[in-house]
TrEMBL record:
Family to which the UniProt record says this protein belongs: Belongs to the D-alanine--D-alanine ligase family.
Pathway(s) annotated for this protein in UniProt: Cell wall biogenesis; peptidoglycan biosynthesis
Protein name: D-alanine--D-alanine ligase
Gene: ddlA
Cofactor note: Binds 2 magnesium or manganese ions per subunit.
Organism, as annotated: Microbispora bryophytorum
Cofactor: Mg(2+); Mn(2+)
Length: 316
């Protein structure tokens, strides 16, 4: 067995991404057990704090997606409990989880990111949706991509190719959040670059190319086997591959992240990468991108997760 002793995996939660989180937690538990680690899985509910106080784990692996899993709240509670955990600190999570804020930070570091505007739903109510939407199209052009400013798994996100599609896209977005991020859509190759840091500095894993069968990497394409084709490593030129790796590591560093992250990028026809967003609790399901990247790098997922937990335990 591992020297880690008692390891706790947090999975579930009450966000829209609960089912994905449960699948991520199950996968991490499986690979850790195969690596000889004693694993317990718990939900983020009213039993969590008493359980941790009664039997403090040596380290926690957070596989909660969306909401408290990525906005820093659960990590703040873990720090109150003096329990070490894998991943970014609460402050860094709060910055990274808010997509417009994250875009502003990485832009200040010189990274390319599509032009965008973030507006709360009250703005459309107070100023008139038609007038505001028309001005957005005038400024950003078409096509556009609309998504909630916070959250993941492409919930509430949609492509807008015509002006007539934008109102419905906004309604769909506001079903999952009070602020919409409307972004100029960049045509190109969609890739995801995972970053891991086992104590020697952040390192990018091979980029994973994403080719959804319906052209949009939505919730169904992400979590339904067969709806998306993946290429790991991505079919990019050496120069574009290096640029994407550099962008992911720079975003990880600029946002003050720790241990693990995943950056989503679009590479245009000229090979120029554009930062889209970053995830501080990457999915770990059978169709998730970080496990694919680890395999492409020749890394065993269980060994990688165990190493991250061991690093976290030293911080305890």
């Amino acid at each position: 067995m591992s020297d880690l002793g008692h390891v706790l995996i947090l999975a579930g939660g009450l966000s829209y991404e609960r089912e994905v989180s449960i699948r991520s937690g199950r996968r991490v538990a499986e690979v850790l057990r195969a690596a000889g680690v004693d694993v317990e899985t718990r939900d983020a509910d009213s039993t969590l704090v008493p359980a941790v106080l009664a039997d403090p784990p040596d380290a926690v692996f957070v596989t909660l997606h969306g909401g408290a899993g990525e906005d820093g709240a659960i990590r703040s509670v873990l720090e109150l409990l003096d329990v070490p955990y894998v991943g970014a600190t609460p402050d860094a999570c709060r910055v990274a989880f808010d997509k417009p804020t994250a875009k502003a930070v990485v832009r200040s570091w010189g990274l390319n990111t599509p032009d965008s505007v973030a507006l709360p739903k009250e703005t459309f109510h107070d100023l008139g949706a038609a007038a505001v939407l028309a001005r957005i199209i005038d400024r950003l052009g078409l096509p556009l991509f609309v998504k909630p400013s916070r959250g993941g798994s492409a919930l509430g996100a949609s492509m807008v190719r015509t002006a007539e599609e934008l109102p419905a896209a906004m309604v769909g977005c506001f079903a999952y959040g009070d602020t919409a991020l409307i972004e100029r859509y960049v045509e190109g190759i969609e890739v995801s670059v995972s970053v891991v840091d086992l104590g020697d500095g952040p390192v990018a894993l091979p980029p994973v190319e994403i080719v959804p069968d319906r052209g949009v990497y939505d919730y169904a394409a992400r979590y339904t086997a067969g709806h998306t084709e993946f290429f790991a490593p991505a079919r990019l030129s050496p120069e574009a591959t290096e640029a994407c790796a550099g962008m992911a590591v720079a975003a990880h560093t600029a946002l003050g992240l720790r241990d693990i992250s995943r950056t989503d990028i679009i590479v245009d026809a000229a090979g120029k990468p554009y930062f889209l967003e970053v995830n501080v609790a990457p999915g770990m399901t059978e169709t998730s991108l970080l496990p694919m990247a680890a395999e492409a790098a020749g890394r065993d997922l269980g060994t990688l997760c165990k190493g991250l937990l061991e690093l976290a335990a030293t911080r305890g």
